[in-house]
Amino acid sequence: MDKQERSPLGRFVMRANEYLVAVRARESALALTTMLFADEVRPTKGIAARAKRPPAKQLQNAVAIIEELSTEWDPESYEDCYRRRLKRVIDAKRKRRTIEAPRPEKEPDPVTDLMAALDGTLERLHKGEDPRAEDGAPTDGERAGKRRKRATASR
Q1: Residue 153, in any domain of the structure
Q2: Which domain holds residue 14?
Q3: Rounded to 5 degrees, what are φ and ψ at 21?
Q4: What is the DSSP letter of 122?
């Protein structure tokens, strides 16, 4: 498959759902990529194309934020949060505790000025704060340190 630059398509069932998949050769292994069936693809008819480009400063700020937050891929830094939460629920049920559904988080305030939001995010990043925190809480030192070391090493 790799030499011919072709990928076979197939179907498989997982958790009672059927999936369309492409099988590709990657680094001497086979990778399975799920795809969408035709009826799952939304038509673009009726969606207006954006006629004008955003201002250059907005693009520069967006690129700067992406660069600042970019890190090397480290699969060990991610964990299955769903499994951990489910295990807690199962353990609580075993102990016959009452299970309450989690309350939805507060909806974020709508952004009225994109430039102000981008500038604020960049300022918080340069100060070493978490750009997602509304109160300007500092980032986890270990993660921020790794991010800075990688950014410095890649430049």
Answers
A1: no
A2: 9-39
A3: -135, 155
A4: H
